[in-house]
Fold this protein.
Amino acid sequence: MEKYGCVSFSGLSLYYCKHLQETPITGRRRFIAFTPAQYEKLSYETYKHVLHQYEKEFLNEDHPYHTRLTRVFHNLLWANRDFVQLNSNQKWEYRVLDRPYPKYHINALCVEHGLILVNSSALEVLQTDDELAFIIAHEMAHILLGHQQENISQGQLLDFMIIAVMAAIWTMIPNDGISIVTHWFFGKCRELFVDLPYSRKVETEADKVGLEIMAKACYDIRAAPVTMTKLSIDNNLNESGKFQMEFLKTHPLSTKRAEHMNHLLPWAELVRKSCDCPELPSKDPRELIAFISYLAEQRYLKLKTRQNLKQVTYKL
């Protein structure tokens, strides 16, 4: 038994080491299970599924929101030709979903085949192109860094490991009840200690690379923490005051991401200057953060008051 276990572990270790690659742009080492041709087929199937799922919500291409998204997206793409050429076969497509605020979150998503979808709520709330540029650059970063491919690869590797452990336990204790409990336990441990921390890690990486993409396109990088503050306010209003624990979330808390953006601004400003961008405007967009937060707090208090009144009325 020990002999077979050692052989299995050695084989898995060899498989892991042979599939280590460097992440484009950042150089971080990571596990990738697929060849480019294999993942191209997989990502195309995902692309078709997502396109079919959301196509009825697409705004027309002559809509002002789509026009604005086109302007910002092409500015980012043109200024980052060196990043884009790291994968010359990468296709790009973008659409605006008819999802107005406040019914829908400020949100955007991407598919590694090159599709970026943005809720119309984001274009409503992010009122300047600088603010919008960061959320688009963040999604572009996910695609350029190959995060979805990495995520699927890691999931496959973890599945192999869990199956091996489950098989060993079943060999020693062939009991269905123990097998079910063990499977549930391993699933929860994987979610809390592997999947969620990994997701937050790549989100932080996409934030940094997204800020760099934004800086190279000569946008006002100080708008990035403003964008994250607005996302934080949106989350707080929609969570109805629920306490937010970061370790239970796929993304770092928006407040922490805003702080991280502020920390990276001096570095991003050097990137911006290296691209011969004009000086930043004298008016700092971050000056609005306190005022925006105050208005959001007042709105939140009104919502809580209404909820409390409803609860009292219901009890009466």
